[in-house]
Structures are given as structure tokens and as C-alpha cells.
Design a protein that fits this description.
Blueprint lengths: L1 H35 L4 E10 L2 E10 L6 E7 L14 H9 L2 E6 L16 H16 L4 E11 L6 H7 L5 E4 L5 H15 L4 H19 L4 H7 L9 H10 L16 E6 L7 H12 L5 E6 L9 H4 L2 H10 L9 H17 L2
Parallel strand pairs: 3-4, 3-5, 5-6, 6-7, 7-8
Antiparallel strand pairs: 1-2, 2-4
Helix pairs in contact: 2-12, 3-4, 5-6
């Protein structure tokens, strides 16, 4: 009996210590995740009334003991985005907080339980929505109404100047904005085809299909007409999405951009952007805004359109693990610092007599 009992006990001890070690490692990993995803700011759930509707949002306030803060109002890009962009905004909000600025964002209509449908909106509708949010923020005693500015990415580039035309803003941060909707679509199509190594025949066919869609939009075709023309294959298009595109496909920021003239603007561009022609964007921003002397351009050569590092964006696994264990490292080097520094320099320039 004794010779058999000893190995059993030894095996039991090994199993127990293996379990303890696993639990300790798991607890340590959980601790790292919680620590890395804790941000130096206070998040408040807020409700904003706009035209009989409700905007459900988040206000992130710096924990610096000050009674008044500037504010960065976030305007989303395309897609069904919630207030935090799946927590992806939080590293940026923390950078803003370090510069003494609060951040405000809200769910798009129809997202995360918010009323409405964001696909029913035009760019003008989105600007009205943001202007209402700014009016709400100006009425708060903890927000400095003279230090409210905008942050917007991608599709929001068409919205930011429209907001500035409706209500005074102190600055704008434009991240990967396009100039012209149709030109951006064609640029993206060709860039993706090149990235896929598409043959000349496939490229010709895809461009012809794109031209057909443009003609349908130009004559205000219905979704049903679109489906018939595509041979009965909607190819992922929905009636709501077709309606959204039909409302907005003529968007071009060139003329609207004048509303930002003389306002400090940070233009952030990604070197690996296949969605937006960054050369066209930079050229247009310089042409319209340079005479005001308030345009700052920052290039991030290794960033994708989202301003995530391209090496990370190309892998869902890398995105997941980096978001868990080092979310601030998702973004291109210098991206968060450039926005924080831009905000700090704004306040320094205001303080200079």
C-alpha cells in the first residue's frame, strides 16, 4: 500500500501546484488587462436633447482638480459607431485629459440602444446633431465655452466644416479626411485592387461596375433599380445603405472647408492609407487654409487609415491582444502625443499676450 500511496500524493501535489500556478498567472493577466484599460479620467454617461430626439453619450473629464476644461467633441467616421468606438477612443480621451481637455462623444442613432437610424442622416444632419451637442456643453459650468473644438475621422471630414459654419469652434482635428466622396471611392477601389494583385481584366470590370453605380446615383435610382441592374445580386448593399449613399455621394469639402479658415486645424494623415488619397487631401487643405496660418499637418508613415499601426491592423489577433494588454500601442507612434501637444500649444498661445 505505502509504495503506491507516495506517488499518488506526489501527483496530487503537482496537480495542486499546477492549478495554483495557472490561477496566479491568470489573475496576473487579468490585472494587467484591467490596469492597461484604466484611464486617467472620469467618464460620465450623458443625455443630450436634439430636435425631439435623444443623444446618448459619454463625457470624459480630466482628473486634474480644475473646475473648467476645454472640450474635444468627437464626430465619428462611417459605420454603426458607439460613443467610445468600442473603447478605441479612450486612449485619445486620456491624451486630451493630460492636456486639460474633456472629451464628448455619443452613440450614432440606432447604435447601442440609441433611437433612430444613422443611415437616415445626411452630412448636414450630422452637423446639426453636433452643433446641438456643443450648445449643450456650453451650458455646463465645468466646460469652457471658448475652448470647444472638434475631432473627426474619415467621413467626418465632410461634417467638421459644416459644424464650424453653424457654431463657433476653437479648433479642429481632422484625421484621415477625404475631399470628394466619388473621388475617394474610386481611389479606394483602385488601391484595394492593387493590394489584391488584381488582373487588368478584373480591374476593368470593377471600374465599369463602379461607373454603372455612379450613373444610377446620378439619376436617383431606387434600391430596387440598383439590384436589377446588378443582375439581382445586391452584393451586401441594403436599402438603408443605398439611401444613405444617395443622400451623400455628392459630398465635397472644398467649399465648406472655408468655414475653418483662421481656426487652428491639425490635419493628421496616414502613410499607408488605401481609403483616402492623402496627397489630394493635403493639397486641398493647404490651398484653402494656409493663408490663415493656422494649419498644422502631421504625417504618420506606418499608419493605416484608422491611424492604427498597419502591422497591427492587418491581424485581428494582434488587434485583440494589443487592445487587451497595451491599448495605447494600437496607434501609430506619435499619434496620441501629437494631439495632446496640439491642445497644449493652443492653450499656450491663448495665454500669450
Amino acid at each position: 500500500m505505502c509504495p503506491k500511496t507516495q506517488p499518488r500524493r506526489r501527483g496530487l501535489r503537482i496537480a495542486v501546484w499546477s492549478l495554483v500556478t495557472t490561477l496566479v498567472v491568470a489573475a496576473g493577466l487579468v490585472g494587467v488587462v484591467l490596469w492597461q484599460n484604466s484611464y486617467d479620467m472620469e467618464e460620465q454617461r450623458v443625455t443630450i436633447r436634439h430636435g425631439g430626439h435623444t443623444l446618448n453619450g459619454v463625457l470624459a473629464i480630466p482628473k486634474d482638480g480644475r473646475k473648467h476644461h476645454g472640450l474635444v467633441v468627437y464626430v465619428h467616421g462611417d459605420g454603426p459607431t458607439d460613443a467610445t468606438h468600442g473603447d478605441g477612443y479612450k486612449p485619445m480621451w486620456e491624451a486630451n485629459a493630460k492636456a486639460g481637455y474633456a472629451s464628448l462623444s455619443w452613440h450614432k442613432p440606432g447604435v447601442a440602444g440609441a433611437p433612430g437610424n444613422w443611415l437616415d442622416q445626411s452630412m448636414e444632419d450630422r452637423a446639426d446633431e453636433a452643433a446641438a451637442a456643443i450648445a449643450w456643453a456650453r451650458a455646463r459650468p465645468d466646460i469652457d465655452g471658448d475652448r470647444i473644438g472638434l475631432w473627426g475621422t474619415s467621413q467626418a471630414g465632410w461634417v467638421l466644416p459644416k459644424i464650424a459654419a453653424k457654431t463657433p469652434v476653437a479648433f479642429a482635428i481632422a484625421v484621415s479626411p477625404a475631399i470628394n466622396w466619388l473621388q475617394q471611392g474610386r481611389y479606394n477601389l483602385l488601391a484595394e485592387l492593387r493590394a489584391d494583385g488584381a488582373s487588368a481584366a478584373r480591374t476593368t470590370a470593377e471600374v465599369a461596375k463602379s461607373d454603372t453605380i455612379r450613373r444610377l446615383l446620378g439619376r436617383q435610382a431606387t434600391f430596387e433599380e440598383y439590384v436589377r441592374t446588378m443582375g439581382g445580386d445586391a452584393d451586401g448593399m441594403t436599402a438603408d445603405r443605398w439611401g444613405f449613399i444617395s443622400k451623400n455621394y455628392t459630398a465635397d469639402v472644398t467649399r465648406d472647408l472655408r468655414a475653418l479658415h483662421g481656426i487652428p486645424v491639425l490635419l493628421t494623415l496616414a502613410g499607408r492609407d488605401i481609403n483616402v488619397d492623402i496627397a489630394d487631401t493635403e493639397r486641398t487643405y493647404h490651398k484653402v487654409l494656409d493663408t490663415g496660418g493656422a494649419l498644422t499637418v502631421r504625417h504618420h508613415p506606418d499608419a493605416a487609415h484608422s491611424l492604427l499601426k498597419q502591422s497591427i491592423e492587418q491581424s485581428d489577433l494582434k488587434i485583440t491582444f494589443t487592445a487587451l494588454f497595451s491599448p495605447r500601442s494600437l496607434f501609430a507612434d506619435g499619434f496620441l502625443d501629437s494631439q495632446r501637444q496640439f491642445l497644449k500649444e493652443l492653450d499656450q498661445s491663448r495665454a500669450t499676450p
